TrEMBL record:
Species in which this protein is naturally found: Clostridium beijerinckii
UniProt cross-references to Pfam families, sorted A to Z: Glutaredoxin
Highest classification ranks of the organism: Bacteria, Bacillati, Bacillota, Clostridia, Eubacteriales
Domain Glutaredoxin: 3-40
Domain of life the protein comes from: Bacteria
Protein name: Glutaredoxin domain-containing protein
Length: 45
């Protein structure tokens, strides 16, 4: 299973999700929406 977190480095919820997976030693990939402009148009909140 590949877990991907889409967010920004300063976002509280993104940090919370990263902490959740790190505490449980679960690998994940972080995708920074500030760096990947083409993703931000595909993701909505």
């Amino acid at each position: 299973m590949n877990i991907q977190i889409f967010g920004t480095k300063k976002c509280f919820d993104t940090k919370k999700a990263e902490r959740f997976f790190k505490e449980r030693n679960i690998k994940f990939q972080f995708i920074d929406l500030n760096e990947k402009k083409n993703y931000s148009s595909k993701v909505s909140v």
